[in-house]
Specification:
Distance between the termini of chain A: 41 Å
Radius of gyration of chain B: 20 Å
Mean pLDDT of chain A: 90
Structural class of chain B: mainly alpha
Shape of chain B: globular
CATH class of the domain at 6-84 and 149-231 in chain A: Alpha Beta
CATH class of chain B: Mainly Alpha
Shape of chain A: globular
CATH architecture of chain B: Orthogonal Bundle
CATH architecture of the domain at 6-84 and 149-231 in chain A: 3-Layer(aba) Sandwich
Low-confidence stretches of chain A: none
Largest sheet of chain A: 6 strands, mixed
Number of helices of chain B: 10
Number of helices of chain A: 9
Low-confidence stretches of chain B: none
Number of domains of chain B: 1
CATH superfamily of the domain at 6-84 and 149-231 in chain A: P-loop containing nucleotide triphosphate hydrolases
Number of strands of chain B: 0
Number of strands of chain A: 9
Helix content of chain B: over 70%
Strand content of chain B: under 5%
Distance between the termini of chain B: 44 Å
Strand content of chain A: 15-25%
CATH topology of chain B: MetI-like fold
Order of helices and strands of chain A: EEEHEHEHHHEHEHEEHH
Radius of gyration of chain A: 18 Å
CATH topology of the domain at 6-84 and 149-231 in chain A: Rossmann fold
Largest interface: A-B, 16 and 16 residues
Helix content of chain A: 25-40%
Oligomer: heterodimer
Mean pLDDT of chain B: 90
């Protein structure tokens, strides 16, 4: 089962008559990690939510290679501010699988595995809300990976984290890509964009301003605004 | 002051001698109120969760009405239940009037809006936390409601205890539908009302002190059983 190629045609989301994102026309082939860049308020988060189906599609189409239910079932989303269930770390990890009817024993086995991969194996019985910001984001990432998504959305996953936590999270992201998971990641960290991107989307004023392979985008951006953004200028 | 002291010593005497009537009406108070509490919680808590996660046309109106009904006058509830259960009423054939069942029905009607409103407040806050995550995980409405009810269980306990407090001290409704019949529907509150009317302040005060003690004991027991105040728990 494959989600890609993804075809987006004239997709738009609006709230109270104000267009937040769109119209967006986009073809994603699923090349690995798609990095969405752009200044604050350019619509990165909303674009991710729109593709994920968490924001209302006011008009236009988003077509996956498979049917929509299947596509939704095989996606997970990691939020900029991690949402912790008021339960233990272990309970957080097994929650998505339990909701899909997986037995507790089997889910726990996988949770143990993932807790080691993100370095939370000693905290399984801690309350998730008492974890530090970095630990919470690692837990959110592991929890998202528990369902073995074919596509993982990450909305500025390391925006509030220090270098070490960022490296741990990027390691997990790269491991996921190596196993064939597609990732769509928004960031305003240029370094992170360069480190991770296979292709890049540049958002501005709620629209996709530029869409190119990573090497093309970072070495020779086509639009003036993207050039300015990559130079570190303020783009409005 | 004299009456107060007399009340205290009467309460002491009733407790120490384990007065038969006292034990009977105390147990009936507990039976009626705890039954009403369990039934009321089973109705009110899922209702609160439903109102938190579902968006439907009349949602705001339902919540507003529930909030308003928190102040429902027990006497009016008693009157309505009386009319419904009386011989000529729609459920007259069941013969429930002047039985503990009628008292439980009246109390359930009184506490459901209270428990549902308080529970809804905390579930709504939790839902605004969880909303994005649970939407993203594509869980069903039922799963959303169960998740909220489970993760907010400490706050829901408070809601239920508020319902217990209202029911155990309630006199207007159960007096009307129960009739305060000795050995049948007499409970602590109706006995207090009766003894006060008869002018036996010492006995009335004694019963009152026992009622307050009972309410405190039940609250402490439930908190202790659920370990609410333990560190690091919700």
């Amino acid at each position: 089962m494959n989600l890609f190629p993804l075809k987006v045609r004239g997709a738009m989301t609006a709230r109270r008559g104000k267009i937040l994102v769109g119209p967006v026309d986009l073809d994603l082939l699923g090349v690995g990690i798609t990095v969405v860049m752009g200044p604050n308020g350019s619509g990165k988060t909303t674009l991710l939510r729109l593709l994920h189906g968490a924001a209302r599609l006011t008009s236009g189409q988003i077509e996956w290679a498979c049917d929509e239910t299947q596509a939704r079932r095989n996606q997970a989303f990691v939020f900029q501010r991690p949402v912790m269930l008021r339960r233990t770390v272990l309970e957080n990890l097994i929650y998505p699988l339990q909701m899909r009817g997986v037995s507790r024993a089997l889910a726990t086995e996988q949770a143990n595995d993932w807790s080691v991969r993100v370095g939370l194996e000693k905290m399984l019985s801690r309350n998730a809300t008492t974890l530090s910001g970095g630990e919470q984001q690692k837990l959110a990432l592991a929890r998202a990976m528990m369902i073995k998504p074919r596509l993982l959305f990450l909305d500025e996953p390391t925006a509030a984290l220090d270098g070490r936590a960022m490296r741990e999270i990027e390691t997990v992201i790269l491991a996921a890509r190596a196993q064939g998971t597609q990732l769509i990641l928004s960031t305003h960290d240029l370094g992170q964009g360069r480190r991770l991107a296979d292709e890049a989307l540049f958002m501005l004023h709620g629209r996709v301003h530029e869409h190119a392979s990573a090497s093309d985008f970072f070495d020779a951006p086509e639009t003036v605004q993207a050039q300015a953004f990559l130079r570190g200028d303020i783009v409005e | 002051m004299g009456d107060l002291w007399a009340g205290l010593s009467e309460a002491f005497r009733l407790l120490v001698t384990l007065d038969g009537d006292l034990v009977e009406i105390t147990l009936r108070s507990l039976q009626v109120t705890l039954s009403a509490l369990v039934i009321g919680s089973v109705i009110a808590l899922p209702l609160a969760a439903f109102l938190a996660v579902r968006r439907f046309r009349w949602r705001r109106s339902v919540i507003a009405v529930l909030n308003a009904l928190m102040g429902l006058p027990p006497v009016v509830v008693g009157l309505v239940v009386y009319v419904i259960l009386s011989r000529s009423g729609p459920f007259g054939v069941l013969g429930l009037l002047f039985t503990p069942v009628a008292m439980i029905i009246a109390q359930v009607i009184i506490i459901v809006p209270l428990i549902a409103s308080i529970a809804h407040q905390s579930l709504r806050d939790l839902w605004s936390d969880y909303h994005d995550l649970l939407i993203s995980m594509n869980v069903t409405q039922g799963q959303k409601m169960r998740t909220l009810l489970w993760d907010a269980r400490r706050a829901l306990l408070t809601a239920s205890l508020a319902g217990f407090g209202r029911a155990i001290g309630e006199v207007g409704a159960i007096m009307i539908v129960g009739g305060n019949i000795e050995n049948a529907t007499r409970v602590l509150t109706t006995a207090i009302a009766l003894e006060t009317g008869k002018g036996d302040f010492a006995l009335a005060l004694g019963l009152g002190i026992i009622l307050v003690g009972l309410a405190i004991t039940v609250n402490l027991c439930i908190h202790w059983l659920s370990r609410t105040e333990q560190e690091g728990r919700w």
